[in-house]
Specification:
Layout (H helix, E strand, L loop, with lengths): L13 E5 L2 E6 L4 H10 L5 E10 L3 E10 L4 E10 L4 E3 L8 H12 L2 E3 L25 H5 L36
Parallel strand pairs: 2-5, 6-7
Antiparallel strand pairs: 1-2, 3-4, 4-5
Length: 180
């Protein structure tokens, strides 16, 4: 990857290779500077996507993918925001296409993009509580209503006997019981 670690982020950006893609990690305070640098100096003018990754116990990763159409070079850009106060400056001023992706990441993970022009829910119904892509979010629908089809051999009434029923991963043992 040309341009790293030289430039304004020298010593503050960690550059690695992951399955053939160049990955650049920075602190949250360097996020906008990194995005601006790769767009203006390295030619990564195409913003592909941005999302969050729940990284327990203490952080969320915010990941962006950008592309240089002239060199056909891809970059994966990452930063980690603390779980107890997940805030990051908005990238909308650098890449307008980040608008939708930041709204989705805000809604699904709870990461607040400060300065975003319209940070409101995008996909979930009005009144929805919680952030469903966090690993600590209980998927209530998987407990409240049984799956209508056979999941395991024998559950259809044919073949081997069924296994003991268990709760889906991440659901507390007493969740949904009348005694809880």
């Amino acid at each position: 990857m040309t341009g790293f670690p030289a430039g304004p982020l020298a010593g503050r950006a960690a550059v690695t290779d992951s399955f053939g893609d160049t990955v650049v990690d920075v602190a949250p305070g360097d996020w906008i500077e990194l995005l601006t640098y790769v767009r203006d100096e390295l030619g990564h003018a195409f913003f592909d996507w941005l999302t969050g990754v729940d990284d327990p116990p203490g952080a969320f990763q915010v990941v962006a993918h950008v592309y240089n159409p002239d060199t056909r070079e891809r970059l994966l850009l990452r930063t980690a925001v603390p779980r107890d106060d997940p805030r990051l400056p908005t990238a909308v001023g650098v890449y307008r296409g980040a608008d939708w992706h930041e709204r989705e990441t805000y809604e699904m993970f709870g990461v607040i993009f400060e300065g975003h022009p319209h940070l409101v829910p995008l996909l979930l119904p009005d009144g929805f509580e919680g952030h469903p892509l966090r690993k600590d979010f209980v998927l209530a629908a998987r407990v409240a209503k049984q799956w209508p089809g056979a999941k395991e051999p024998g559950e259809s009434g044919h073949g081997a006997p069924s296994r003991r029923r268990t709760l889906p991963p991440g659901v507390p043992a007493d969740w949904g019981s009348p005694d809880a």
